[in-house]
C-alpha cells in the first residue's frame, strides 16, 4: 500500500484462460477459476502476505495447456482484484503464467484407418503405404501415440526395382486449425536417402567452357530396409496434441474453434520422372513430464493436472 492505510473489502484471485487468433475480433475469453483467500475486510498497511491456492487437479474446470502457435494461442493469467468501497475503481493486477497438462500416452494405438487408406491395403493406424508409388514401400511403427520424452521408432521396407528412388524421408508435420484457417508446418525431417549431391565443388576444373559437368545420382533401385530412431525431446516446437476446442461453447461455429494435430509423413521422389509421392498418418502426442520451471521474466508458473499452482 506504499505505507498508507487503506481499506480493502473482498479479495478475489483468478486464473483466466483466453484464446487469441489471427483476427482480433475472434479473440475470446474461455473460462476462469476463482478462489477467495481467507481474510476479513479491513484496513491494510504496508506489505501484507495473503496465501492462496489453485487446486487444478480437483477443479471442475477443464483447463487447457498454454500454447503459442502461428495462427492461435491459448494464454493464462493470474489476476488479483481488491474491492475498494467508496473508490471509483478496484485494484487489479495480472501476471502471465504457463500451464502444463500432464497426460501419459496410451499403450495402444487410438487412431483409425481412413476408408481411402484401407482401400489401398493399410491394416492398422501405425503403418504407412504410398499407393501412388509404382514400386513397393511400407513404413511400420509400433504405436501412434507418444510421450514427448520418448523415441519414435519406425522401420521402412521397400523395393525400388520398378521405379528407382533418389530421395526418401520421414517428416513430422504440424497442422493448426484456427477460425476456419489451416496452417501446416514441417517441424522435423529425417532424411533416409538423398542421392543428389548438395553442391558441386566450384574449385574443380570446369573443363571446356560451356560443357556440363557429369552429375552422378545415387538411387534406390532394388530391395532396401531402413530403421528410423527419432528422440522426440530433440525436436524443437513439439507440443501435446490439442483436441478440438470450441472457445465459445459452439462447436458448429468454426470461427471460434481451434486445434493442433501432428502427422508422420513418408515422402519420396522418383529418379526418372521426378514424381513426388507421400502419405501421412496422424500421431498423438502427450506430456507425461513437466518442463523445468523458470524464474526469468516473464514469471512463469507450471501447473500440472495433479498439483496446485
Structure explained in plain terms:
- It is a single chain.
- It contains 1 helix and 18 strands.
- Helices cover 2% and strands 45% of the residues.
- It is elongated.
- It has one helix spanning 115-119, and strands spanning 5-8, 11-21, 28-35, 42-45, 67-68, 72-82, 91-99, 127-129, 136-141, 145-147, 151-159, 165-178, 181-194, 223-231, 242-246, 257-270, 276-286, 302-303.
- Strand 8 (127-129) and strand 9 form a beta hairpin.
- Strands 2, 3, 5, 6, 7 and 18 form a 6-stranded mixed sheet that branches.
- The chain has 309 residues and is mainly β.
Please describe the structure with a list of short key phrases separated by commas or semicolons.
single chain, disordered C terminus, 6-stranded mixed β-sheet, 309 residues, mainly beta, 1 helix
Radius of gyration: 27 Å
What is the chain-wise order of helices and strands? EEEEEEEHEEEEEEEEEEE
Quantity of strands, as a count: 18
Structural class: mainly beta
Beta-strand residue percentage: 35-45%
Low-confidence stretches: 200-204, 295-309
Mean pLDDT: 84
Helix content: under 10%
What's the N-to-C terminus distance?
Answer: 25 Å
Shape annotation: elongated
Described by strand count, sense and barrel closure, the largest sheet is: 6 strands, mixed
User: Count of helical segments?
Assistant: 1
